[in-house]
Design a protein that fits this description.
The protein is of the alpha/beta class. Helices cover 37% and strands 27% of the residues. It has one domain: Transcription Regulator spoIIAA, CATH 3.30.750.
Amino acid sequence: MTTTLPLPPLVGTRKRARTLVESLPPDLESKIVVVDCRDLMAATESFADELITRVLVDRRAAQMHFVNVSDLEFANWADERARFHRVSDRVKIDRRPS
Protein backbone atom coordinates (compact mmCIF):
# COMPACT_ATOMS: atom_id res chain seq x y z
CA MET A 1 0.00 0.00 0.00
CA THR A 2 1.16 3.53 -0.82
CA THR A 3 0.51 6.82 0.90
CA THR A 4 1.57 10.22 -0.45
CA LEU A 5 3.05 13.15 1.44
CA PRO A 6 3.19 16.34 -0.65
CA LEU A 7 5.82 18.80 0.56
CA PRO A 8 5.03 22.53 0.63
CA PRO A 9 7.45 25.02 -0.99
CA LEU A 10 9.31 25.87 2.24
CA VAL A 11 10.27 23.26 4.82
CA GLY A 12 13.00 24.14 7.23
CA THR A 13 12.45 22.79 10.70
CA ARG A 14 12.18 19.51 12.54
CA LYS A 15 8.84 20.68 13.90
CA ARG A 16 7.53 21.14 10.36
CA ALA A 17 8.62 17.60 9.49
CA ARG A 18 6.83 16.23 12.57
CA THR A 19 3.66 18.16 11.66
CA LEU A 20 3.69 16.82 8.10
CA VAL A 21 4.25 13.24 9.27
CA GLU A 22 1.25 13.56 11.61
CA SER A 23 -0.93 13.83 8.48
CA LEU A 24 0.06 10.28 7.48
CA PRO A 25 -1.78 7.16 8.63
CA PRO A 26 -0.63 6.08 12.11
CA ASP A 27 0.49 2.61 10.95
CA LEU A 28 3.16 2.86 8.24
CA GLU A 29 4.58 -0.65 8.61
CA SER A 30 4.71 -2.37 5.22
CA LYS A 31 3.63 0.86 3.49
CA ILE A 32 5.47 2.90 0.86
CA VAL A 33 5.49 6.61 1.62
CA VAL A 34 5.77 8.69 -1.56
CA VAL A 35 7.15 12.14 -0.78
CA ASP A 36 6.12 14.49 -3.58
CA CYS A 37 8.69 17.28 -3.85
CA ARG A 38 7.08 18.95 -6.90
CA ASP A 39 6.44 22.25 -5.04
CA LEU A 40 9.58 22.18 -2.89
CA MET A 41 11.73 25.30 -3.26
CA ALA A 42 13.83 25.30 -0.08
CA ALA A 43 14.55 22.78 2.67
CA THR A 44 17.15 22.10 5.33
CA GLU A 45 19.23 19.12 6.30
CA SER A 46 17.52 18.98 9.69
CA PHE A 47 14.12 18.73 7.97
CA ALA A 48 15.36 15.82 5.83
CA ASP A 49 16.79 14.11 8.91
CA GLU A 50 13.60 14.46 10.93
CA LEU A 51 11.41 13.28 8.04
CA ILE A 52 13.48 10.14 7.53
CA THR A 53 13.70 9.50 11.26
CA ARG A 54 9.95 9.81 11.81
CA VAL A 55 8.85 7.82 8.76
CA LEU A 56 11.46 5.06 8.47
CA VAL A 57 13.00 4.71 11.92
CA ASP A 58 10.15 5.52 14.32
CA ARG A 59 7.13 4.46 12.25
CA ARG A 60 8.94 1.75 10.25
CA ALA A 61 7.58 2.40 6.76
CA ALA A 62 8.67 -0.24 4.27
CA GLN A 63 10.03 2.35 1.86
CA MET A 64 10.28 6.09 1.31
CA HIS A 65 10.20 7.24 -2.31
CA PHE A 66 11.03 10.89 -3.02
CA VAL A 67 9.59 11.97 -6.39
CA ASN A 68 9.86 15.15 -8.47
CA VAL A 69 13.03 16.24 -6.66
CA SER A 70 14.63 19.22 -8.38
CA ASP A 71 16.49 20.51 -5.29
CA LEU A 72 19.62 18.38 -5.60
CA GLU A 73 20.97 19.62 -2.28
CA PHE A 74 17.84 18.27 -0.56
CA ALA A 75 18.26 14.97 -2.44
CA ASN A 76 21.85 14.71 -1.21
CA TRP A 77 20.80 15.46 2.36
CA ALA A 78 18.11 12.78 2.20
CA ASP A 79 20.68 10.28 0.90
CA GLU A 80 23.14 11.24 3.62
CA ARG A 81 20.62 11.07 6.46
CA ALA A 82 19.29 7.72 5.22
CA ARG A 83 22.84 6.32 5.30
CA PHE A 84 23.38 7.78 8.77
CA HIS A 85 20.25 6.07 10.09
CA ARG A 86 21.10 2.85 8.19
CA VAL A 87 17.88 2.88 6.17
CA SER A 88 19.32 3.78 2.76
CA ASP A 89 18.15 0.43 1.37
CA ARG A 90 14.58 1.70 1.93
CA VAL A 91 15.00 5.12 0.31
CA LYS A 92 14.59 5.88 -3.38
CA ILE A 93 15.10 9.39 -4.78
CA ASP A 94 14.00 10.37 -8.28
CA ARG A 95 16.05 13.43 -9.13
CA ARG A 96 14.89 15.66 -11.95
CA PRO A 97 16.74 18.58 -13.46
CA SER A 98 15.50 22.00 -12.34
